[in-house]
């Protein structure tokens, strides 16, 4: 199998995960995973499978040849039947499997059917073809056997790597970044969300246009006889495309800036009213939207898919003692979130940074919850939200291993285990939020005439009532309120106390 151009690198332990039906990350973990990185003499069923596969390779899949070059050029993703490929450079076998399982979940979220997954152990990705060239040819066999139309690489590949690997496997090759961008594009609903994703996609595409163009002209040039005559128009078209994209990006940036102003005004209004804000943050699929629904009864979309939520939702909620606050659902985080998207979604993250309290939701039933916690904290740090108080909400307690829950509760000092599904721990969480929310700072004693009942309601909603008495002249209130409300109540401070 190994050719002269792919020496010892490919002889390194090569591990392949056979995964017929990778449904979701957690589902995969229960799959039969066959590792075959022993020496060649050790044969098992998997190797047998592989020899069969090799025998099949000339028969199947010819229809998946790249026919329409414009499809390559514009990289419109129409993922249908995909094979995953990862390079395992460090960490344990389990880490690399988790990473590929997450890629599988991402691919499924994008609407693809995952046919197979392959991991190669290497010191670092091959600069030319991501995986070694020998393994790239084996990947080609798998593509042919399964009839896959796309290979998805677990990482961000350079334009050159994408082309080189595509040349070997003869089907579309996309990377993790493109996949996440595609999911975001499918899920964004608000005008702002859509614009941000479109901008990120264009940013990603821009440096890659040249690469695809080169691939295109090479194909047009055939055996080298084409020369400038055939290459010329292709280059010109790329230049035009790039200019068009740049113009569009500039326009989009202006639009986004305008939309941002609108949102900023709303946020300032909330702040002026001094309604404390709580942000629900956490890894994608941790159960953030479920928790928001559980805490407020809001009907937010919950889905067993990654990035179900791409538009921030803000709801009003009330503590057990009757104080109002806002609760914001946010976009889920994922490891190695494409840089362009971190930028694009900075606005939602900013919301997290400016909140009074972060509910950091983590899926207690996930195989590696600590990693998810760390990945999210990295982003929290990036947006300068480290000083915002945080409650770690270990969700899915109903499905989690009790030992894992214990471990997390021990490591995380300010944590609580809940189940958004069964409601377990929710009352405790609500009480905890009440304790953690900033308290209004001005203490007042007022006598509000019954004709101004609205003010009394505001004290109940926005402040903390210490005592309340109904007298003949009106409501006698002792309370703690924020400055603005204190000012509104000033006329009702009794002259003599
Ligand atoms: N077993 C169990 N499943 C839960 C629980 N909470 C949420 N889920 C499931 O987890 C999946 C993801 O829930 P969401 O609330 O959409 O998660 P999210 O964090 O908002 O996800 P994104 O918006 O995609 O980032 C859904 O299938 C939920 O039904 C829970 O307490 N227990
Ligand atoms: Mg959600």
From TrEMBL:
Gene expressing this chain: hflX
Keyword Aminoacyl-tRNA synthetase listed: no
InterPro entries tied to this protein: G_HFLX_dom, GTP-bd, GTP-bd_M, GTPase_HflX, GTPase_HflX_N, GTPase_HflX_N_sf, P-loop_NTPase
Sequence ranges assigned to domain Hflx-type G in this UniProt record: 276-441
Protein name (database record): GTPase HflX
Superkingdom assignment: Bacteria
Localization per Swiss-Prot or TrEMBL: Cytoplasm
UniProt KW Nucleotide-binding keyword: yes
Similarity comment: family membership: Belongs to the TRAFAC class OBG-HflX-like GTPase superfamily. HflX GTPase family.
Keywords assigned: Cytoplasm, GTP-binding, Magnesium, Metal-binding, Nucleotide-binding
Subunit structure: Monomer. Associates with the 50S ribosomal subunit.
SUPFAM superfamilies: P-loop containing nucleoside triphosphate hydrolases
UniProt-listed Gene3D superfamilies: 6.10.250.2860, GTPase HflX, N-terminal domain (3.40.50.11060), P-loop containing nucleotide triphosphate hydrolases (3.40.50.300)
Function: GTPase that associates with the 50S ribosomal subunit and may have a role during protein synthesis or ribosome biogenesis.
Location of region: Disordered: 1-22
């Amino acid at each position: 199998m190994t050719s002269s151009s792919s020496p010892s690198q490919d002889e390194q332990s090569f591990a392949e995960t056979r995964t017929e039906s990778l449904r979701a990350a957690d589902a995969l973990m229960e799959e039969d995973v066959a590792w075959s990185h022993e020496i060649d003499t050790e044969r098992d069923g998997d190797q047998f499978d592989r020899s069969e596969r090799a025998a099949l390779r000339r028969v199947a899949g010819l229809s998946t040849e790249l026919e329409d070059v414009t499809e390559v050029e514009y990289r419109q993703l129409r993922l249908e039947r995909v094979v995953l490929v990862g390079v395992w450079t460090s960490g344990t076998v389990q880490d690399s499997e988790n990473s590929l399982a997450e890629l599988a979940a991402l691919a499924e979220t994008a609407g693809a059917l995952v046919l197979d997954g392959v991991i190669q152990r290497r010191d670092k990705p091959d600069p030319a073809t991501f995986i070694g060239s020998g393994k790239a040819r084996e990947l080609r066999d798998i593509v042919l056997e399964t009839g896959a139309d796309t290979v998805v690489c677990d990482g961000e590949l350079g334009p050159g790597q994408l082309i080189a690997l595509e040349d070997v496997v003869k089907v579309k090759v996309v990377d993790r970044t493109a996949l996440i961008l595609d999911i975001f594009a499918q899920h964004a609903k608000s005008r702002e969300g859509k614009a941000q994703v479109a901008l990120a996609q264009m940013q990603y595409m821009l440096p890659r246009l040249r690469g695809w163009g080169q691939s295109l002209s090479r194909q047009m040039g055939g055996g080298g006889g084409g020369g400038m005559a055939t290459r010329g128009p292709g280059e010109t078209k790329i230049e035009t495309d790039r200019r068009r994209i740049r113009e569009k990006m500039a326009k989009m940036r202006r639009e986004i800036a305008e939309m941002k102003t609108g949102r900023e005004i709303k946020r300032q209004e909330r702040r002026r009213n001094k309604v404390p804000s709580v942000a629900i943050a956490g890894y994608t699929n941790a159960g953030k939207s479920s928790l928001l629904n559980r805490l407020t009864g809001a009907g937010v979309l919950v889905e067993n898919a990654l990035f179900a939520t791409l538009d921030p939702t803000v709801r009003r909620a009330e503590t057990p003692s009757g104080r109002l606050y806002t609760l914001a659902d946010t976009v889920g985080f994922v490891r190695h979130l494409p840089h362009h998207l971190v930028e694009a979604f900075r606005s939602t993250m900013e919301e997290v940074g400016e909140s009074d309290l972060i509910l950091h939701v983590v899926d207690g039933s996930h195989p590696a919850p600590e990693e998810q916690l760390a990945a999210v904290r990295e982003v929290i740090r990036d947006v300068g939200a480290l000083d915002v108080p945080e409650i770690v909400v270990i969700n899915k307690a109903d499905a989690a291993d009790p030992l894992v829950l214990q471990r997390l509760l021990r490591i995380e000092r300010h944590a609580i285990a809940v189940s958004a599904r069964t409601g377990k721990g929710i009352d405790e969480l609500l009480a905890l939020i009440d304790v953690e929310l900033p308290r209004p700072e001005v203490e007042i004693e007022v006598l509000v005439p019954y004709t101004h009942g609205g003010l009394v309601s505001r004290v109940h909603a926005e402040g903390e009532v210490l005592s309340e008495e109904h007298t003949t002249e009106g409501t006698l209130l002792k309370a703690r309120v924020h400055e603005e409300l204190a000012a509104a109540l000033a006329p009702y401070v009794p002259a003599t106390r």
